[in-house]
Amino acid sequence: MANESRPCPCDIGDRFDYGGRGQEVQVGHIKAYVCKPSASTDKAVIVIHDIFGWQLPNTRYIADMLTTNGYIAICPDFFVGQEAWKPSNDWASFNDWVKTRDAGKTDKEVDVVLKYLKDQCGAKKIGVIGFCWGGAAVQHLMLKNPHLKTGVSLYGVISRFEDKHSLLHPTFFIFGEKDDIIPLEQVTSLEQKLKQNCKVDYEVKIYPGQTHGFVHRKREDINPQDKPYIEEGRKDMINWLNKYL
């Protein structure tokens, strides 16, 4: 399930057997998964998927978790119909593949989703979370989109926006101590630069012993030793959203 003979640069981890409580809708030029809480709310969270795309059950599980915490959650297809990465793909082709999917070019899609959330869902306070590729997209959006209130970047690929740190909105950065994709030196450097340049509230947190993808790609029942950190990461994410939305 997790370790194919040629794993992609970030392992898919434990695929959740999860169908989702929401529904797929058309939002402008893209498809999206939407889940709404039972009580009406004006708070919403955009969920930006990782390289495995908007249909990964693990990501929908997190979107539904946001809904149980009182948020409208929407996970759009930020690859706009292009294929998501598959664990069976040849990892030698990954760099070419990812060049056609730029985490810094999500603005058009986010504008469409913001309009949908405001017009169709009555959302007034909107935040964003993202994983891996999506975590980099969160950092990009926190640097430039005035309509989002806050963001949580989960193991976002730092090297993508190495020299940009003047965040517009409070942002929470989640990293794993044993992440093979994001070395701790990069995390330390990010923290130093934020300290020097950032005028809004932010937090950078490293979770002991955790690997890339731990918050959404690890199942607690398969990884009991990681369960406390998986739960802590999810709780920290929700608490941050609660604080700023």
UniProtKB/TrEMBL annotation:
Keyword entries, A-Z: Cytoplasm
Highest taxon of the lineage: Eukaryota
GO CC, alphabetical: cytosol
Cytoplasm keyword on record: yes
Record domain Dienelactone hydrolase: where: 30-245
Single annotated GO MF: hydrolase activity
Compartment list: Cytoplasm, Cytosol
Any Pfam family: DLH
Sequence similarity: Belongs to the dienelactone hydrolase family.
Protein name: Carboxymethylenebutenolidase homolog
Species in which this protein is naturally found: Rhadina sibilatrix
